[in-house]
Specification:
Strand content: under 5%
Largest sheet: none
Distance between the termini: 103 Å
Number of helices: 5
Order of helices and strands: HHHHH
Helix content: 55-70%
Shape: elongated
């Protein structure tokens, strides 16, 4: 079986290096608490002293900022695409409803329909006058 490779957050590495640099903790204490290799912790301290960890911090924060901006722009693109589609549909609907041939009954076609229509003859209402009520 292979070993499981752990990855640590950049802020964790900086906190560990600062704790050792400040004298609050020793390398041995950190290694025992977090079950880390001594070489790994010493490398983090060296990177912190040389400024590599802070440079990574700036790079990471810039990447996060760019990702957020990218998400906002993608959302805006989606919104604008939906608006364009809605406007195209509205324009298409407007064009079809304004053409003369699109209506089923237009003013020219309604006259023959009206002259051909006859009034409906309703049946006479039922009456009960001639009948006697039986008890």
């Amino acid at each position: 079986m292979g070993r499981i490779r752990r990855s640590f957050d950049h802020s964790f590495k900086v906190r560990v290096a600062e704790a050792i640099e400040g004298g609050a903790r020793t390398v041995l204490e950190i290694c025992q608490q977090y079950q880390l290799q001594r070489q790994t912790v010493e490398r983090w301290v060296q990177q912190h002293v040389s400024g590599e960890l802070s440079a990574k911090s700036k790079k990471i924060s810039r990447e996060v900022e760019l990702e957020r901006e990218n998400e906002k722009l993608n959302a805006k693109i989606g919104q604008l695409t939906m608006q364009i589609d809605a406007l195209k549909k509205a324009d298409s609907f407007r064009r079809t409803t304004r053409s003369d041939g699109s209506w089923i009954i237009s003013s020219k076609a309604s006259d023959p329909v009206i002259t051909l229509a006859k009034p409906l003859a309703l049946p006479a209402p039922a009456t009960t006058r001639g009948q006697k009520a039986r008890h």
